[in-house]
Amino acid sequence: MEEVLNSRRSFLRLGAATLATLAAWRAFGADEAPAGEGAYAGLPVGCQSYTFRDRSYDKMLEAVSKDEHLKFVEIWPGHMSGMSPKEARKRAEDHGLTITGYGVVSFSKDDGKNRKEFEIGKVLGVKTLTCDPSPDSFDSLDKLTEEFGITASIHDHGPGNRWGKIDTIWNAVKDHSPRIGLCNDTGHFIRAGEDPLRACTVFGDRVLGMHLKDFKKLPNGKWDDCILGDGSLNVEGIVKWLLDHKFRGDLSLEYEGKKPVESAAESLRRVARAVKGAGA
């Protein structure tokens, strides 16, 4: 009898928690719960931890796994301050998360310093290092990407950045190892007057990572980070490209505005709708 009562209490507590969560989302203005596992037709949708830069590493992991119901995370180096890569990986795995990327990190012609970043990536178990490489770093990266089996994905970072334009990045990498490619930050390409979908077409299989992000231009000319689809991003087109190419790289939602938990959840719902709309 005691076991039955305990089971009933547990069920009631779970039900109350679920109702409370749904109530919270409806208070935010959403009619649906967050998109869950299985909503992305096999796309490895995760989150860039910078989205939750307002909290500790463990609280970030909790937000990604429990609030956003994701299985993958890309780690922003600032979240690992004072922590070993081994410990960071263990904590992520304890939350049911796989670390798919690490960055943004810098590379130069200094092979020794570059190697240290790849060693961190190896311990974390990542697919790619999202990076801002100097133009004289590519010979080093050719060797290190081959040695470690970890790709280097160049992160575009908006207008004025040395890697702000699609063709600039392509011309820099085209004669180097195919393990050196693009992290398509869709929002920053929008700010730079570029088309993120064209970036996918230009780079093809050398799109090694993606930061799903959107921006809208305000009347004062400034850019505002927004929920996917509220700005200039062609969410349906990007999702269709990812599905058509069976993308399995580092695919991370990134949001830099306010209310990150709720805003990220709404962005993920829109990704899930785009997946469903594509017939996947």
- Here the CATH topology of the largest domain equals TIM Barrel
| Cα Rg | 20 Å
Superfamily (CATH H level) name of the largest domain: Divalent-metal-dependent TIM barrel enzymes
Number of helices: 10
CATH class annotation of the largest domain: Alpha Beta
What is the H-and-E element order?
Answer: HEHEHEHEHEHEHHEEEHEH
Shape: globular
Would you count the extended β strands for me? 10
Whole-number mean pLDDT? 90
Give the low-pLDDT segments. Answer: 1-31
N-to-C CA distance: 47 Å
Structural class: alpha/beta
Widest sheet, order of strands: 1-2-3-4-5-6-7-10
Biggest β-sheet description:
8 strands, parallel, barrel
> How large a portion of the residues is in β-strands, by DSSP E?
15-25%
- In the CATH hierarchy, what is the architecture of the largest domain at level 2? Alpha-Beta Barrel
Oligomer: single chain
Domain module tally: 2
Approximate helicity band: 40-55%
List its traits:
2 domains; TIM Barrel; 10 strands; globular; alpha/beta; two-stranded antiparallel ribbon; about 280 residues; disordered N terminus
Notes on the protein architecture:
Helix content is 44%, strand content 19%. By secondary structure, it is of the alpha/beta class. The chain folds into two domains: 33 residues; 244 residues, Divalent-metal-dependent TIM barrel enzymes (TIM Barrel). The strands form two sheets. It has an eight-stranded parallel barrel with strand order 1-2-3-4-5-6-7-10, surrounded by seven helices. A two-stranded antiparallel ribbon has the order 8-9. Helix 3 runs parallel beside helix 4.
